Amino acid sequence: MRRTPVRILLVEDNPADADLTSELLEEAPVPPEVHVARDGDEALSRLRGGRVRPNLILLDLNLPGMDGREVLEALKADPDLRRIPVVVLTTSAAPADLAHAYEHHASACLRKPVRLGEYLKLIERFGSFWLRYASFPGP
Amino acid sequence: MSRPDPSEAEQPRPTVLVAADESADTEAARRSLEDLGARVLVAASPAEAVTTLEEDADGGTGTGIRLVLIALSQNGQELLAMIKGNPALRWVPVVLITPEEAQEEVERTYDLQANAHVVRPDPLSDEPDLFRAISDFWLHAVVVSHD
Question: pLDDT tens digit string along B18-55?
Fold first, then answer.
């Protein structure tokens, strides 16, 4: 079982949602180190510039400018970044969005619930696996 | 071990395929996951696992199996490559459990498109929380493309 914090890049344009997700992740037994990028361009810029090297990327699909689908494609086409597991967060119920995400090698897709209690449970479930048991590729 | 969330009790039991070649591992995984409400299929080799997946396939759009848990002592990456290289099966999430956190092995696992890698507790039966975490996330949080 992991005893060191996982480093997460949370790509989320909505500040309230980013704060909520970060706060919920803080409740984990070993809280992760969370970095937030507000859009896809910022995420890719920080990753490619070496300013953040996360173990895992938590990616919202609906982003301004370059959206989450394009960010995922760019990540998985980049030899330096493609191994980083990407967990997609989406409010979309469209099967095409899920198919696109898995086609481009997202590790998992999570549907964002509207209710706070359900979102809390979702983040707990995310943390129970990824923050405690998963192994990650090296830098 | 606690039972599944009552709000999920009416939903069909999610199916997990456990690929393991040590009977103690198979039984630890089966017992833990069944206690958590899953239906568990087992395979002792890559060929048997692929046959099981193909038999369970649902019209080529995905399978009824929600997760493949590979805990083979040998040929685990071979099975992973077989699943992710098969257009009818590659959508199924695969978690690979290996004995050591050798960085090269972890990287190779992600190169082969594993959905996740986990270092194997020894013995596997000593870590029931691992199966709860796997069940909570992969069976009750993740949405797959054929949901």
Answer: 999 999 999 999 999 999 999 999 999 999 999 999 88
- Tell me how far apart the alpha carbons of residues A122 and A25 are, in angstroms, rounded to a whole number: 11
Q: Read off the tokens for A9.
A: 């890049």
Residue A119: how many CB atoms within 10 A of its CB? 18
Contact A134 B132 (CB under 8 A): no
Interface pTM, i.e. ipTM: 0.95
What is the pTM for the complete model shown? 0.92
* Rounded (10°) CA dihedral A106, B35, B81, B115: 20
Give the nearest chain B residue to A112 (CA atoms): B141
Closest Cα in chain A to B91: A102
- Cβ neighbourhood burial of B22 (10 Å; 0-12, 13-18, 19+): middle
Provide the chain B residues 33-72 that lie in CB contact (below 8 A) with chain A: none
